[in-house]
Amino acid sequence: MKVAVVGASGAVGQEFLKVLAERNFPLDELVLFGSGRSAGNEYEFRGKKLVVKELKHNDDFKDIDIALTSAGASISKEFADTITKYGAIMIDNSSAFRYDSDVPLVVPEVNPEDALVRPRNIIANPNCSTIQMVVALKPINDLSKIVRVHVATYQAASGAGAQGIAELETQIQQVAKGEEPTINKFPYQLAMNIIPQIDVFLENDYTKEEMKMNWETKKIMHTDAEVSATCIRIPVARAHSEAVWVETENALDIEVVKAEMEKLEGLTVLDNPSQKVYPMPLFVSGKDDVYVGRIRKDVSNPKSLTFWCVGDQIKKGAALNAVQIAEWLIKKGEVK
Ligand code: 2RA
């Protein structure tokens, strides 16, 4: 098995290396690709030094079985044919193909079978904020069809990549010293602040990040349920949090919901209010699972319930989800 990581020097690229090593992924060879700028960078994998090759339109992908790509949408679009033309399966973390009808959008806990139909040999990895929410929604939807979802997200700085977390750290130091904070990546100072904008505003006054949660949830869950999201950037290093309100066709018993959530592999229930037990980003950073807590009936609507969920957005929200798709394909004999 030969695996490629495209965008190896980025935050998600580096996480791919960690996750592949951690899970003892069954590969014989790992090849790293990157831009001209990152070509030549060296990283260690299973005790061996690997050098990043420049991504080019050539035959470098001839023997690759699986390519894990996270180099931005324009690179994914430009190189998709080069990557897949000899049969490599491209599992793409960018937004380039998520809404194409001939590209499945997959979260292994929710819709793994969709990965079997991939006419272009491309599988898209959803946006991080959607992944963690649909994992938590899956057991609820199995009990009673979800009619609508309201969600407010609290997204970590590292969702904006390595530069995002570096900017937050610099700003925290600057603010502590009484200096003017440097602002590049985020629209405003993030340290000591929260910003109710992630990505650009669209015509309906939602941001693209918010509409991704609507579009992607429908595609992954095969549902017509509408999702109304407000996505907020908060000064947290890693792991996104979400407050979610879910309306179902039938009223649900909260204890049954909790029991079903507990059964889903990949979802951990941390919910004991009297003991102050609930998930928080500081403690979920670096973890594989999506964590849920504060699960309760919505006092405003008998057919609605509400919960809080936290997931490491670089791990389950990106690299781990892609690697789990690859593992599922291997298990199903889809990788020759
Ligand atoms: C963010 N969801 O947190 C984005 C990254 N895909 O900025």
From TrEMBL:
Functional pathway: Amino-acid biosynthesis; L-threonine biosynthesis; L-threonine from L-aspartate: step 2/5; Amino-acid biosynthesis; L-methionine biosynthesis via de novo pathway; L-homoserine from L-aspartate: step 2/3; Amino-acid biosynthesis; L-lysine biosynthesis via DAP pathway; (S)-tetrahydrodipicolinate from L-aspartate: step 2/4
Known EC number: 1.2.1.11
Residues holding phosphate: 98
Annotated InterPro entries: Asp_semialdehyde_DH, Asp_semialdehyde_DH_beta, NAD(P)-bd_dom_sf, Semialdehyde_DH_NAD-bd, Semialdhyde_DH_dimer_dom
Active site: 128, 240
UniProt catalytic activity: L-aspartate 4-semialdehyde + phosphate + NADP(+) = 4-phospho-L-aspartate + NADPH + H(+)
Domain of life of the source: Bacteria
Binding positions for NADP(+) per the UniProt entry: 9-12, 37-38, 158-159, 313
Entry keyword annotation includes Oxidoreductase: yes
Keyword Amino-acid biosynthesis in annotation: yes
Keywords: Amino-acid biosynthesis, Diaminopimelate biosynthesis, Lysine biosynthesis, Methionine biosynthesis, NADP, Oxidoreductase, Threonine biosynthesis
A biological process from GO: 'de novo' L-methionine biosynthetic process
CDD domains the record matches: ASADH_C_bac_euk_like, VcASADH2_like_N
Binding locations of substrate: 155, 233
Residue ranges of every copy of the Semialdehyde dehydrogenase NAD-binding domain listed in the record: 2-118
Family indicated by similarity: Belongs to the aspartate-semialdehyde dehydrogenase family.
Function, in words: Catalyzes the NADPH-dependent formation of L-aspartate-semialdehyde (L-ASA) by the reductive dephosphorylation of L-aspartyl-4-phosphate.
NCBIfam families (alphabetical): asd_B, PRK14874.1
Protein name listed in UniProt: Aspartate-semialdehyde dehydrogenase
Source organism (scientific name): Aquipluma nitroreducens
